[in-house]
Design brief:
Blueprint (H helix, E strand, L loop, with lengths): L4 H5 L8 H12 L3 H6 L3 H11 L4 E5 L4 E6 L2 E4 L2 E2 L7 E3 L19
Antiparallel strand pairs: 1-2, 1-5, 2-3, 3-4
């Protein structure tokens, strides 16, 4: 018996989380994207992801000075889902450094 449309649309999608595809598209968009998003723009990346997935939470590693993204049970950054995480990873909380990106004056053009 063939399932009806309502039954098939309720199935959970298989494969990588959609954020994985979004991060891959960003990485592929410019060769410096990984460097920018791991050396100064990691919080900006979190803000972009959160605009699409409001349930995303920022996690901060003081030892790395890096923001990771917690989303639907996975931890991500521009490099994709991360499995080897720093031991000092903590929720960033309400004291988010909303002006980090303003101090980064690097540009992709030469």
């Amino acid at each position: 018996m063939k399932p009806d449309r309502a039954e098939t649309s309720l199935k959970k999608p298989t494969g990588p989380h959609p954020v994985e595809r979004a991060l891959a598209a960003l990485r592929d968009g410019h060769p410096d994207m990984v460097r920018l998003s791991t050396e100064g723009q990691c919080f900006t990346l979190f803000q972009a992801v959160r605009a699409i997935w409001p349930q995303a939470e920022a996690l901060y590693s003081m030892s790395e000075g890096h923001v990771y993204i917690s989303l639907d049970g996975g931890i991500h950054d521009i490099r994709g889902r991360q499995f080897r995480l720093p031991t000092d990873l903590r929720p960033l909380g309400h004291r988010a450094p909303h002006r980090w990106a303003r101090w980064d004056h690097r540009r992709l053009s030469q």
